[in-house]
Each structure stands twice: as C-alpha cells, then as structure tokens.
Design goal:
Length: 183
C-alpha cells in the first residue's frame, strides 16, 4: 500500500511539473545558442521543420535508450522533422557520443542555461514544437504513464522498456501535427 501511495504522489507531482514546464516552454522558449559546429541558432525562430527538442546527457540511461528511436524518426520523416539535441549536466563529450552512435541531430553541447530557462530539471526532457511555436508534446506528461511492475527494475532496464512506448507517442504526435499541416 505504501508503494501505491508513493506512486500516486509521484504521478501527481509529475503532472503538476509537466504543466508548468509546458507553459514555460510555450511562453518563453526562444533562445540563442551555438551548435557543435559553431553555427549560431535562434530557436524556435530558425526552426524550418517540426522541432523535436531533446534535453539529454550522455550518462542518462533513458536518453541512451530513446535516442536510437529518435534517429529512426529522422530517417523516416526526413526534412519534415528536425531533432535539436540540447546537452546539459554532462561532463562527457556529447559530440563524441553522438558521432560514436551515428546520430544525425543538431547538437547544442552546452545547453544548461536553456534547460534552466525551459524549466527542465531532469533527463530526458523532450518537447515537440510546431511551426506556430506551440508545444504539441511534452515527454514529462508521458513519463507519468508507467506500467506497473517497474519498481524492481534498474534504471537501464526501465529505460529499455519505456523508450519504445515514448517513441510511439512521439510518432503519434508528429503524424497528427504533419496531417494538420497538410490539410
């Protein structure tokens, strides 16, 4: 019973936090930052495609499990979607990690300030922002939807099981937004 009460409390806190984060990102999400190649970006103004903003760290097992799914989205959706990988709270070399894994995302290796401005406190954080600069997906809202029985698994095991579920929800949102755009 104690575990159930704790789970309900955590779900409630995540829901409250996710609403705050979504509002902050929608209201004050503009930022300027250089990518790993030194190119200056002003986002979401420079966003030409549907933007997937991933706040991540190379040490995060959830990020490591989710990123191959995001790469498959890039491969499938092509120019209709752009993944912005905003690395924060990471002492490792994010560029080396992404090259080693073969990820084709726009990398921002020093995005701690953006994460703070967006209210991102943990990894992974992921938002889909459409062409009208509206947040259409907030991974923090999906994080609360965990199947029962995960309590006994390690973070890596939980990450491996959750990542496909998250990717499916991301694809649903991308399909919906792209369908609306085509109408």
């Amino acid at each position: 019973m104690h575990v159930l009460r704790r789970a309900i409390l955590i779900v409630g806190l995540l829901a409250l936090t996710s609403n705050t984060i979504a509002q902050e990102a929608a209201a004050g999400g503009a930022f300027e930052l250089n990518d790993a190649d030194g190119r200056a970006w002003t986002l979401p103004a420079d966003q030409e495609a549907l933007g997937v903003y991933l706040f991540w760290a190379s040490w995060c097992p959830y990020c490591r499990a989710l990123m191959p799914h995001l790469q498959s989205i890039v491969d499938e959706y092509g120019d209709a979607v752009e993944i912005y990988a905003l690395n924060f709270r990471d002492q490792n070399d994010p560029r080396a990690y992404m090259e080693e894994q073969g990820f084709d995302f726009v990398l921002f290796p020093d995005a701690d300030a953006v994460a703070t401005d967006w209210g991102v406190r943990g990894t992974p954080g992921l938002f889909i922002i459409d062409s009208s600069r509206q947040v259409r997906f907030n991974l923090y809202q999906v994080l609360a939807e965990s199947p029962p029985g995960f309590e006994d698994l390690s973070h890596t095991q939980r990450a491996q099981r959750r990542a496909p579920f998250w990717a499916a929800r991301i694809r649903e949102t991308l399909d919906q937004v792209l369908a609306e755009r085509a109408e």
